[in-house]
Amino acid sequence: MKRAEQSHRCTRTMTGHAERQLRRWGIVLFGTVWLAAFVFPGSARANVVTDVNNALLNIIQNTSGALVDGPPEVAREIALIDGAMFDAVNAASGSPYMPIAYHGGQVSGASANAAALQAALTVMNSLYGPSSLYQQFGGVTGATYYPSTPAYANTTVGPTLAQVNGVKVQIGMINAELAALGTSASITAGISLGTAVGNAMLALSANDGGKAASLQTLTPFVPTNVGTAGVYVPPSNRPAMTPTWGTVQPMGISSATLAALEATIPVAYVATHQGLTSQAYALEVLQTECQGSGTALPSSVASTCRAAGFASESAAEAQAALYWNDPGGTLQPPGHWLQIADTIAIQKNLSLLDTAAATATVGLALHAAGIGAWAIKYQEVAWRPVTAIQDCAAWSPNFTSCDAIWSSLIVTPPHPDYVAGHPAFSGAAATALAAVLGTDRVTFVSTSTTYCNGGTTARNSLGNVMSCTLNAVTYSTPTVCSNGATAIYDGDPVSPTLIACTLGGVAQSVTGGGCNNAGSQPVLNANYAANPLYNGSPLICVIAETYPTLSQASGGFLGAEFSRVVGGIHTPAAVVQALALGNAIGTSMTAPIALDQTINATGTNATIFSWPHTMGTAANGLLLVGISCGNGASVLGVTYGGQRLTRRLAQNGPGNQNRIEIWYLLAPSSGTATVVATLSNASHQVHGSVSFTGVNQSQPFKESASTSGQSTTASLNVTDTSSNQVVFSVIAANEGANPIIVTGGQTAVWDNGSGTASSDILGAASTAPGNESGVPVSYALATSQPWVLGAVVLNPAAIRVSRAH
Question: Which residues neighbour 355 within 8 Å (Cβ) at sequence distance 6 or greater?
């Protein structure tokens, strides 16, 4: 779908320090052989899904420096492997969720652990096995693959032979974990299931275009009108990355849905002559020039930056840029977010099924983000800021700060500027993960991987960086941790390398030695001159950062979004629109909670009440029954079509004059059945049933709250909800309060009374969308009467990990 040309507007404008006063948060680490795992204290532990991901992250680090394994490919690998593990665990757990690729139904008695491990192995043996691109091009360098292009000589087309062997070691570790489970009938059934699931996932992806798009990277890409101002200039030392990846088929959402999301992103400024030469685009390039420089700025440029209000990057911002860089040879942006998802899963003690659901949803979102971002990149083919800044041919009368020797803080990746990749991956992963968890508010610490920001890299036999050499100067990793932190080494038999530092069980940044010191020293002084205390080292050691929310990790100057501007590799519009695309993709991975049907009735002086309710056919159904009663009665039980409901909330009013209860049933069968409620004693009551679709079946509720009182206003504040959640509330009040009026932003579901005598009961119910700042649930009463009020918060389900009926 061709995106319509429209006026370009960033959703955020950043000038000077005015909007950059974000709180600096520190750090968490989940790791692999290279990254030791650390989570907050408690009983948190890993499971087979995070074990496999440990190995996968090691493999990504081993292969991602190759031409055939850039960020989009890494995202696809995560989606396939974690998607297969989810399908396997789901089938072994009774198939409570709708599958991604495997439609063989549940397998009773199969070990979920064995199924997950075997499913992962089946996919990994295909992705990384003898017929894979990684082994096909193992050990192949640019010198042999591009003999007529000397500039490509130092590229690695595929992993080195040592790295290929390293991949085999990681897969061997998973095999060993599976073998250790034994040979019982349950394990054997799990292995059989895992094989079937893995093959189903491979069949689903066999014709998605991923392999062909990876191969296309090996053919040098030459944009139409190359050499024209505004058009992307591919790097001279390697081919441009995955120019046809935008044609790959996504999983979890349709190609049409993804194309529609891409169409919402404005065209790049450089797509038209008017945009290229506009004052707005000149300011975009200037902001990157001022805030993302790796070297001192000429006095004329410094004056222009100062006049525009663009201060140079702070030490915290520079460190964030280096932390989120994730170049080839590291976990790359998708792997970084898989690491974060695993960290949180361990930290929250998620079950095996919930862990698999979380990482699979993140994987699907990452994969779609890679496709969407790369489709736009090679549609717009927008030149990088460094090209615009160094081009002194007066490409715009509004850009007057050309600097022919300007360089960015981090090395520019080999693909176009617009839209940025990392913010798209980050927005998709953060939004999808928040939807699965039911909250954005998750404090976590994450660490980056040691890498060389330019120059040449020396690694030990395990693949870990030992040193970087730039301009004949070698910068080596430190051998000890600073500030009394505990050092963790990788165990290399010849060259053991420091890979992590911890203090009190919390990961710390690795500093000292030859490490870059941007975290303690700004790159430039306030006058844009070089800071003599900044060492400019290309060795970027492990950086630990702490974030209080997922959205703060994906957005802002200290998150992935503007880290690309202060890194000097993207314009602000490229990162703002990338994050918007990623957020939209992440949101598309969740189905909104929808009201299915509502039934309401009343009763007088009886102990058993019944009424019909019809459930629709949409997925992830939830039936709620709300009962408002009096006369000291309570509910003994509720059934729907003979199925027992579970009490979620109960609360007595003042003096036990009235009472409310909320009962629920997950995934009721579609069609019409009878609701039967049985009370402890005869009572007047108002009762109702309401059904929803799109509700999380593993964790349907986020919070429950209740209160009581006597006044003309019944109110309750439900805290810590998000916009994709729904608050359902029920009230009971004495007859003298008639009428009860639903107030605020709530929508009435029912409002009724059992009669008009003083002994009768009034009952009402309502829904309201969640809100991060809290939802005030409120009802107005005609007169001051005793009342009782209760509310529950419903969590949304993810589309591709949604419960089946």
Answer: 47, 49, 50, 345
Confidence band (pLDDT; 50, 70, 90) for 44? low
On whether the CB atoms of residues 546 and 27 are closer than 8 A, the answer is yes
| Closest CA relative to residue 333, chosen from 709, 75, 542 | 75
Q: Give the C-alpha separation, 63 to 330, whole Å.
A: 9
Give per-residue pLDDT as tens, 551-607.
999 997 899 999 999 999 999 999 999 999 999 999 888 767 888 888 888 888 889
Residue-by-residue DSSP string for 1-38: -PPPP-----S----TTTT--PPP----B--SSSS--B
Give one DSSP letter per residue of 138-198, joined into a string.
TT-BHHHH-TT-GGGTT-BSS--HHHHHHHHHHHHHHHHHHHTT---HHHHHHHHHHHHHH
Q: Which residues pair with 764 in a beta bridge?
A: 731, 751
3-state secondary structure of 358: helix
Residues 6+ apart with CB under 8 A from 367: 75, 76, 78, 79, 250, 251, 252
SS3 258: helix
Whether the predicted model's global pTM rises above the 0.90 cut: no
Give the mean model confidence (pLDDT) for residues 339-347. Answer: 97
Q: How far is the C-alpha of 182 from the C-alpha of 188, rounded, in Å?
A: 9
- Give every CB contact of residue 551 below 8 A, 6+ residues apart in sequence: 430, 431, 434, 440, 559
Please report, rounded to a whole number, the percentage of residues in the chain having pLDDT higher than 70: 93
Secondary structure class of 131 (helix, strand, coil): coil
Q: Helix, strand, coil proportions of the chain in percent (round to 5)?
A: 35, 25, 40
Distance CA(327)–CA(642), nearest Å, equals 58
- H-only helix segments in 309-441: 315-323, 332-347, 352-380, 385-390, 421-437
CB contact at 8 A, 121 and 168: no
Residue 235 host element (H or E):
none
Q: Are strands 646-652 and 444-447 parallel, antiparallel or unpaired?
A: unpaired
Instruction: At 696, list the tokens.
Output: 């999380």
In 668-718, at which residue ranges do the beta strands (DSSP E only) sit? 671-693, 701-718
* Confidence (pLDDT) at 521: 96
What is the C-alpha separation between 728 and 650, in angstroms, rounded? 14
Write the single-letter amino acid at 564.
R
List the one residue out of 340, 313, 356, 265 whose CA is nearest residue 81.
356
Contact between 344 and 437 (Cβ < 8 Å): yes
Structure confidence by residue, pLDDT tens digits, 630-686 = 989 999 999 999 999 999 999 999 999 999 999 999 999 999 999 999 999 999 999
Strand partners, 299: none
3-state secondary structure 81-107: HHHHHHHHHHHHCCCCECCCCCCCCCC
Which residue type is seen at 533?
Answer: L
* Rounded Cα gap, residues 389 and 569, in angstroms: 11
CA angle, residues 572, 573, 579, in degrees to nearest 5: 95
Query: Can the peptide bond before residue 739 be classed as cis, meaning omega within 30 degrees of 0?
Result: yes
Question: Contact, 258 vs 246, CB < 8 A?
Answer: no
Rounded Cα distance between 314 and 291, Å, is 9
Distance between CA atoms of 315 and 523, rounded to whole angstroms?
7
